[in-house]
Every structure is written in C-alpha cells, then in structure tokens.
Amino acid sequence: MSDLPKAIQINEEGPREGFQFERVPIPTARKIELIDSLSETGLNQIQVASFVNPKNVPGMADADQIVAGFTRKPGVRYTALWLNEKGLQRAIATARLDVKGSLSLTASEAFLKRNQNRTAAQDLEGERSIARMYKANGIPVERTSVRAAFGCNYQGDVPTAHVVSLVGKLLEVASEEGFTIKLVSLADTMAWATPVSVKRMVGAVRDKYPDLQVALHLHDTRGMGIANAYAGLEMGVAIFDSSVAGLGGCPFAGHKGAAGNVCTEDLVFMCDEIGIETRVDLAQLIASAILAEDVVGHPLPGSVMRGGTLAALRTAIKAGAAA
Amino acid sequence: MSDLPKAIQINEEGPREGFQFERVPIPTARKIELIDSLSETGLNQIQVASFVNPKNVPGMADADQIVAGFTRKPGVRYTALWLNEKGLQRAIATARLDVKGSLSLTASEAFLKRNQNRTAAQDLEGERSIARMYKANGIPVERTSVRAAFGCNYQGDVPTAHVVSLVGKLLEVASEEGFTIKLVSLADTMAWATPVSVKRMVGAVRDKYPDLQVALHLHDTRGMGIANAYAGLEMGVAIFDSSVAGLGGCPFAGHKGAAGNVCTEDLVFMCDEIGIETRVDLAQLIASAILAEDVVGHPLPGSVMRGGTLAALRTAIKAGAAA
After folding, report:
1. Mean pLDDT of chain A
2. Closest chain B residue to A232, measured at CA
3. Which residues from chain A sit within 8 angstroms of residue B273, using beta carbons?
C-alpha cells in the first residue's frame, strides 16, 4: 500500500460521456446546468462536449451551444473531444475551451474495424496526420492514450506487450512532430480489466517508460470500476477519468449493458476515506450527481449518492455526542 | 499480489438477506424457486432463511415453509440464521439444515443499543448464554463474527484494536464451553470499510491470531464492496459472504440507502478473471440473479448480470474466428 499517491487528479467526463450516450434528447439548458453545478464541486477539469458528427452522435448536436452557454469558473479547465480537423476547429472557434491535443491508438484491430473501419496500420497513419494537424494549429500535445487496452468485445484479451508497443508507437508519432509526451492513459473501453490486469498493465508500461505518468480510464460495465481504480492507486496511478453518478457509456461498444466510467463521487469517497487528496467537495459533488439523475431522467449507477457519506455521519455523531 | 488465494469459499446469503429486506411480500413458492435455482450453480453453502420474530421481520414469517419446501442438492450446505434458543430450536426441528453455531459480538455500543437494546457487557453475557445453549443442544461452534467491525452509523469509526480485542473475547467465550474456533468473520455491517481498512483490519486480526481463518462480510452501500473483497483477496482472505444480484440489506441499519452484501456473481466474475477457483458456474449464477430480480420485482444492483461475462464473449469470438 506504500505506493498510494498523496493526491489524485480527476478528469470529469460525465457531461461528455453522458450526453452522447443518452437516447432521449436533453435540453441544452439542462446540460449547461449540470456543467455549472460540476464547476462548483472543486473538480478542476471537466470535459463538457464532443465535436463530432451529429448524425453519429445526436446527443452532441448542440455542442457549440453547450460550450457557449456554461459559466467558466476560474481554475477549472474545460475540455472537449474531437476526432478530426473539423471537430478541432469547432473547439478552437469557441474560444472557451482548454484545447490540447491527444494521440490515441486502439489495441484491438477488430474494434478499430467496427468502430472506425480502419486497420491498425491506418490507425497509426491517422494519428500521424492528427499529430501534424496539431502542429499546424499550434496545439500542444502532451497526452496519449491506448484504447481497449485491457480487452475487446470483438477480439478478446489484449496482450500486455502489445499495449506497451503501442505506447512506444505513440511516443514515436509525437516525437516526429516535435511533441514531448508526459502522460499515457490506459483505457478500459469495454470493461475487460480486473485489479490484477490493471496492476500488470500499469507495471509493464511503467517498467518500459518510467518517466511517463500513467492515467486510467475505467468503464464499470462489470462492476470492477472502483476495484480497478484502487488497484491503480496501489500502483501509484494519480490521474483518473471518471463520470459523475456513473453517467454515460460508449455508444459504439456494441454492448447493451455498457456502463459509464467509474463513478466520480464513489472514487472521491474512496480517496477521502483512505486519505488521498482530490480537492473535490464530496457533498457538492453528490448534489451534482443527484442533479445528473434528474437531467437524464432515470436512475444512474452511483452508490455514494444513495448511500451517503461517512463524513456526514461523523458530523451527526459528533453533534449528537456534544448535545 | 502474491497472497491471492488459489480458491475461495462463498457463502451465499442472498435468500436470507433479500427476503428479510424486501417490503412487498414474496410468495413462499418464489423464494423456494430462487433457492432451488441457486442450488444448481455450484455454490456449496446457501443461507436460506432466518428464524426470527415475524413481527420484526415479516419477510421471514414463512421461514419454516421455505425450509420445508426447497430441494436439497447433495454437496450443498443449507444454513439459516437465528438470534435465540427459540430460533435455534425451529432450525433444528426442520431437520433439513446444516445447523452450526456461531458467536458474534458487535464493535459499536451505540449500534447494540439501537439494534438489540444491549450494552457491550450485556452483549458479551448474551454470547456466553448462546455458547451454553449450543453446548446444551450438542451444536458445534467453530465460527465467530464481529459486527460493525469497520465503522458504525451511530458511533463512527471503530478502532482496529477494539475489533482485535473482541475477537479475543469471542475465543474466550467459546473456550469456556469447550469450543475450538477456526474462523472469525469481520462484518462491514454498515458499509464503512475501504480497501485500506480491510487490509489493516485483516492484518491486525491475523497478526494476533495467526491460526484463525478470516472471512469477510461486506455490504455495498457505498460502492466499495468489490474493491473491499479484492483487498481481502490480496490479504489471502478465502471466505466471503455474498448475495446473488446484490439482494438484501440490513433492515436495522437505519439507512435508506443500505445496499445488500457484495454481489455474488460480480465476485465470482472477478475471481474467474484473476484465476481464483470458486466452483461456481457463472452463467448459471447469472440466470439465478435474473430470477432474483423477477422474484423481488425490481432492479437489483448486480453489474455482471447486465454487463455479461467475458467467457461468453471469448467463446463468441473464438466461434467467429473459427467460422
């Protein structure tokens, strides 16, 4: 347990993951309401939208309006996702986002084929062209990620060595355009990870690239999200993507039961209780999670939003004891 | 990770935990249907009922009929819960149960006061009288448990040393009646545990009592259940209570969000994936979990029952590749 980090960075992805996943249209004003609520929690990075083709992701057809409408809170980085130059230009045009580049490769050729109709070679070539696009636009690139790093619904288990080799390729592609990469995110896109495979994969990447920070993007489809995050913490991982109330899920994973990212408030609860700093106010975050349920109009998978915090119980007990 | 056990014993508590928790009456025949379904999964210990006062627990008013009605599968131990001599005699009278004694102390005096209107001294005296009751009835006692071992909604955090001292008292009480205790179960009755406190508590108990097996009874109210189970596995814990589909919850914990035990099929899934033997057929167990939802008539918190197994995906991928 000695490798537990003292503090972690949480990248809130609930708005982007959630809005693109929901089938029933959500009014733009309500999306903005949730983002503004999240801005008050202490979260310092919030992914608010994706600039993608509205034909593929109708829930993000109002991405420009979302970004124009939320209230920027000082100290919070607001990010978005895009898949091509057109999306990037839309993000830049808002002038309200923290626009940074990221390079990604996918560890499953079968998933690439279904999701983007690409071979692995085309995926690599595509990232080369994206790296050039960032360079041409003067956008810094410090982050890389490997998708489907723990397994794939269409291809099966992913060998650790393959993920490590993809990290190497991402560093090469970045280096060709003069970018220095500081971080690699290992994404459990289809929820194949276990605490053991998280430890093995993080360890293998760190052994080969000791200077890279490792981040985890964990989906919770099979209920392993928090256990996998804990395994990451034990390996010293200090950067996590997560979704308030467990919003979202990957609409392309071809899986009816696809759940969202690991739940932000459950992750914050665990960190609070084991003494890892998150800078997030858990009570405020639970208020956002309850709002998120109201915004999407159906129950979301978060636990602490229903179970309540121990901090609140401790306060009540203390007040009772003092009375 | 080197302390991961090769195999674990799962004590299925879904029927008992679930039926006593549900507010809408469930027909006895449907309770029996679920038990019979669980008998076909490979689970070798199933807690089917509690013999308690039906005024306090109306969902268990039909305990005798449940026990009379299910089909005993060879190799499966069917257990029940009772709180006093009357309950024990009812359990013995069925002649269809594996009647073994257990001694328990509660780590929170505030919870004792609310739940049983007892002081800690009265709790200890009560267990002495229960130990005598077992001896008088020729019932073996090999198991002890500490309730609220990780914290209490009414008293707060529980010091590790206090739990260790309660284990010592349980061993003394057992020894006074000539029983040799083999196992202590640490119960996170009100879901205060984290992976770190699980490791600390299991380690402290084992340091003091290295010959005792440690079991974990983990509630999932705050979403930490599977992470806590994983932390237990890393400490070599090889006995877990769990509930199919996450059925149940403690009706006395005074907590609206009280969730059931850690979900059996999510636990089995994790063990299958990390190579720990459970002897349970996960596909059959998921069928039981889906049945459990139908029996209680509302969604239950299990994840793998919705997300599906990786074994099924691997088989489909292999079949596709072969075709």
Report:
1. 93
2. B227
3. 194, 196-197
3-class SS shares of chain B: helix, strand, coil, % to 5: 45, 15, 35
SS3 B168: helix
Distance of CA B30 to the CA centre of its chain: 21
Q: Alpha helices, DSSP H only, in chain A?
A: 14-21, 28-39, 63-69, 85-94, 109-116, 120-137, 160-176, 195-208, 225-234, 264-274, 282-296, 304-307, 310-322
Query: What's the pLDDT tens digit per position in A65-89?
Result: 999 999 999 999 999 999 888 999 9
Sheet holding A239-242, edge to edge: A77-82, A45-51, A9-12, A239-242, A213-218, A183-188, A141-147, A101-106
DSSP A119-137: -HHHHHHHHHHHHHHHHHH
Contact between B255 and B221 (Cβ < 8 Å): yes
Q: Which two tokens stand for residue A162?
A: 């393959």
- Which tokens belong to A274? 């084991």
Nearest of B216, B197, B188, B202 to residue A273 by alpha carbon: B197
Give the chain A residue nearest B320 (alpha carbons): A154
Instruction: List active site positions of B.
Output: 250
Per CB-CB distance under 8 Å, the chain B contacts of A286 are: none
pLDDT at B126: 94
What's the pLDDT score for residue B197? Answer: 98
Chain B residues inside the 8 Å CB shell of A155: 317
Closest to A224 (Cβ–Cβ): which among B226, B255, B302?
B226
Give the integer Cα–Cα distance in Å for A70 and A72.
6
Q: How many angstroms away from the CA of A25 is the closest CA of chain B? A: 24
Distance CA A37, CA A189 (A): 27
Q: State yes or no: pLDDT of A234 exceeds 50.
A: yes
Structure tokens at A276: 């890892």
Per domain, the residue ranges of chain B are 9-322
Give pLDDT tens digits for B13-31: 999 988 888 888 999 999 9
Chain A closest-CA separation from residue B83 CA (Å)? 27
Smallest CA-to-CA distance from B224 within A32, A269, A83, A144 is with A269
pTM for the full predicted model: 0.95
A9-322: CATH topology is TIM Barrel (3.20.20)
Nearest to A181 by CA among A213, A203, A218, A138: A213
pLDDT value at residue B321: 74
Q: Is pLDDT at A256 greater than 80 in this prediction?
A: no
Average pLDDT, chain B: 93
